[in-house]
């Protein structure tokens, strides 16, 4: 559990294949300095092949996908299923990111994607997080609902493939000052761990990494990861600024 995990969520970036190649080549060159940090890069589907071409021999960087389709058969125009992702070299998949929950991923769909991906041999980064914070602590209920609906009755043998990323929606895509305060993160991390402990048991809890995501930069990463009591980070915009991103990883290694 000591290795830290960083997930780079490129979303719909960068703007060209050449830029994608350049970014991953630079990051790959620096990866010998990553110490005990492991990195998962999640590019848009159209760049998966290029990225895997650069990192295929890496011991530090593996490939992730930003979404997955888990229906039966192959007649699904516009979708990308588990087998195709695995053939492209994908090992991890993001499930339940708030930007997908906003489109159409209900708790039920998130659970289906999670279970099918795990059974298909992918590691799943289950993203959860409240839309806003309230004085009355309603955000705890929202996070609890998302986690319970995903992991209740999760078969024991699949738990090793589960990572939970706590990403409060109000902190995503903001300035670094608006990221969560480490003390707030510490509180919710304890809450999430207790919940997993209650649902899956203490032995299984040890297998589940908990990450934080939302406006992480090279300037706040170390404090967030240290005082926030998390096992890693899920990073959007800062993961595309190579210099900053490499510095961020070196700081927390
Ligand atoms: P951000 O995105 O780091 O740009 O806030 C995080 C995310 O949405 O996963």
Give an overview in words:
The chain is of the alpha/beta class and 253 residues long. The chain has one domain (4-252): TIM Barrel (Alpha-Beta Barrel). It is 40% helix and 17% strand. The protein has helices spanning 17-30, 48-55, 82-87, 98-101, 107-119, 138-151, 182-200, 202-205, 221-227, 242-252; strands spanning 4-9, 37-42, 61-65, 90-95, 123-128, 162-166, 209-213, 232-235. Strands 1-2-3-4-5-6-7-8 form an eight-stranded parallel β-barrel, surrounded by five helices. Helix 1 packs parallel to helix 2 (48-55), helix 5 (107-119) packs across helix 6 (138-151) and helix 6 (138-151) packs parallel to helix 7 (182-200). It is globular, with a radius of gyration of 17 Å. The structure holds 2-phosphoglycolic acid. 2-phosphoglycolic acid binds at residues 9, 167, 172-173, 213-216, 234-238. Residues 9, 167, 172-173, 213-216, 234-238 line the site of 2-phosphoglycolic acid.
